[in-house]
Design goal:
The complex is a heterodimer of chains A (391) and B (462).
Chain A lengths: L2 H4 L12 E3 L1 H9 L7 E2 L9 E2 L4 E2 L2 E2 L1 E5 L4 E5 L2 E4 L7 E11 L2 E4 L10 E2 L11 E8 L12 H6 L4 E8 L12 E7 L2 E7 L16 E9 L5 E3 L5 E3 L30 E8 L5 E2 L6 H14 L8 H4 L3 H4 L6 E2 L16 H4 L8 H7 L6 E8 L2 E4 L2 E2 L4
Parallel strand pairs in A: 6-18, 9-12, 11-14, 16-19
Antiparallel strand pairs in A: 1-8, 2-3, 4-5, 6-7, 7-23, 8-22, 9-10, 9-11, 12-13, 14-15, 16-17, 16-18, 19-22, 20-21, 23-24
Chain B lengths: L8 H10 L59 E14 L57 E13 L6 E10 L2 E2 L2 E2 L2 E11 L6 E9 L24 H4 L3 E12 L4 E10 L20 E11 L4 E12 L9 E13 L2 E12 L5 E3 L2 E3 L5 E14 L6 E17 L5 E14 L3 E14 L8 E9 L1
The chains are: A alpha+beta (391), B mainly beta (462).
Amino acid sequence: MLLPALVACSQEATPADPKLWTLFDVQALYAGGAAATHGLAPNDGLPGGIPLGQLLNGSELVATHAWTEVGDVSYVTTEVWSGFDRVWMQPAYVPITGWQAGVPQPLLDAAGLQHPIFSVGPHSGFYSPFWQIVYAQVPAATSPGALTAARQVLDGGYPLTPSEGRTMPLAPTGIMGGGNPGTGWLDGAPISYLDFGTATFTWDAQNVVQELPLYVFTLMGADGQPHVLPEAPNVLGTAPPPSDLTVQPTTAPTIGGNLQQPRYGAYWRVYTVVIPPFASIFAPTNSPLSAALNADLTRIRGTAAAQYSTDLAGEDPSMLATYVGRVAVDPIDSATGVPDCFGSLGMLTACTWVISQADLEQDLDLSTGGPTGITVTAPVIDAYGAPVVPL
Amino acid sequence: MRARGALPFGLALIVLSSGGRAAAQVPPPPPSAAAPPAAPPPDTQATPAPPPASADEPINDSDGYTPPADGPGAPSALSIDGYVDVGFAKAQGDGTSFAPGDQSVPADYGVDPFAPAVNSRGDVASTDAGGRFVNGFLPRSVGIGGRPSFLLNTLDVDLKYTPPATPLMVFSRVQFLPRFTGAGDDTRVYVEQAFGRLIPFDSQEFAISAGKFDSVFGIEYLDNESNIRTGVTPSLVARYTTGQSIGVKLFYRIQIAPLWSALSLNVAGTNSGSFVEALQPPDASLSGEPVGSGRLGYELNTPIVAAKLGASGMIGPRNDQGDQSAHQTAFGFDARVSGFGVYLNAEYVHVDEGQGGPKTTSLGTFPFSSAFSMRGGYLQVAYAFPWAVRALHKVTVYARYDRRHAWFDGFTPITVDRLTGGLRVDLWEAIILKAEYLDNRELAGAPTVANNVFTSSLVYSW
């Protein structure tokens, strides 16, 4: 009979279902009892996935330390995508009353604030925090609250002027820790957002946001599995790999021209990089962070801790902080388990550190890791010790 | 021989007068031995199926099994039927529902791309989104944009074979669909149906079909073919209920003669349920689990008024992706009432789809299948003037009101409606001329766009 043939049976493996987590989802997971260690997208190439604690701590965005071609930076993570091969920029309409010398004159409310009108909500898989500002020129007498939905803008027949792209994650009200908070409209209802400014991403002719690599170091453990070192800084790349970068840029990477501050991309694909046996991670034990890192290393490797010079123990931890978690590819002294350049603060500058995409491509075999299925919104909020002010 | 029930003679007359072609919404011309009805084998659910009052009457067109007479003069076991549908259409704007100035993506999530339909297949004037990304919520297109154009909508060839002295019927429907789009020639040869149907018991209206067959959901699928449909275009909810699929179907009907009534049950397990092939491919199961669908129907056939009521349901994994846990459910109610030349059809459909994995439709592959919901329906009224003069067999005027409220997860819900008005003229038994106007309106959510359509259809049947 044919009927038995209708009964479901085993099927071939199918691609992972695409999944997006926004700050709304993260907050909901916390509210449901999830711990900060709960991993998002744990099966998409990054061991353990992205822990909730990397996005939010209460209502605070969490800063993550990373290295770039120029120096160390901090970024926050506001969205995590799993299984998406691309993400699109969406339009956000900003009513203006006209132009003066080429500058749009926004329609402001009584408090002097403008309220963009978003076109896609955070519960859609096609939601994106990457918005193209589309200025809608409305009559000067228009009430600031008259337009609250994209349909009204389009039906109004107002002149539309597509403009810059801005990274503005929609967020639950009260989230802090990065970006300028604001309130816009979505389908007639107010919604909060965080504005990380313009010059934070580029896009192609089909509005696909261009991704950059975010390298996460992993370490092969005694169990034969790769492990992420949460204390180790990541590396923000500057070009889609392989970039064939052979010379470190001497200026800060920027998006857009004539910018006075470094502008890093905000959309990243997570790549893993396996730390090879010949490389070392700087993790002396004279600060809580480095002690934790050292303990993790010992636990994962299942071997005794490396022997750091007693000279380092006497150093001011703040002087060493900039080196903690860095990976060096200098030869390891078999007696101590660390390179000789780890011997003193002064020698650290002579180490061959791997802290940029160029270093990675030059000094490590990147084929041991590779791209994951995870992409993130991760705008840089501090660069080289100074806050990055949204433009 | 199959037992023929002794239904009231009046019932048989009503059926014969109101359903010459079982699936037609309006009565066709009287049967003629010289030019037998060219309708395809209709679904058994659609037909009241009372047997003829006498052996001299034409066989009922229920398509229930009727053994052929043996010997010389017996009807041929093989019949070849079909039709040609030639259209002429003009849509407003650029032939799409995409609003100029709207840059949100996917472009097909914030509008109804199915609105500017031009033919009975639901093909639209255009689906050109102007380079914007779309995610597979699209109908087929005839690629004419906003330009007026003649179209060869369908060349349909039906083969039906009934092996002598067996309770089996084999049917195939192959359609040639000449299309030319902006990307070049897009002509297809499409096997719309191909199935065998077995009626194992002479004494029961019980049929088992296996192959690719019509939907069992609702009633609009009965009008899929342009030589049967009263008007030209399908409703705004047809995309969810009228698709063919491959699987197994069981039909059972019991006549309750004293009450002039019948109850029927039609259930199917198929690859894709009742969605049209542009939305869910019917020719393979992507999830590995069948989609169940069915309809429970009640028929009342009095000498004055005939009424048919039904409740339908569908459940199973959505077949535009591979995740078995991504379910689609649908239910609906339908009604058909006819009397005094007036024909009223109404249907309500409720659809929910869960989010699934990467999306695959007959039109291509897309990033992922979003959760989706729809509530909608239509009401159609037709009146057939009691005229029959020489070649003019019938004139029918009709109007239909459609309404559809739908939303993709996270996107603005949209509400659209459509008012369709048209005229149908039947000449002889082989020619149908239809013309109609579609007034599409975006009531909420979707931007207002010029996407009304004038379309017409000239159908030759053989």
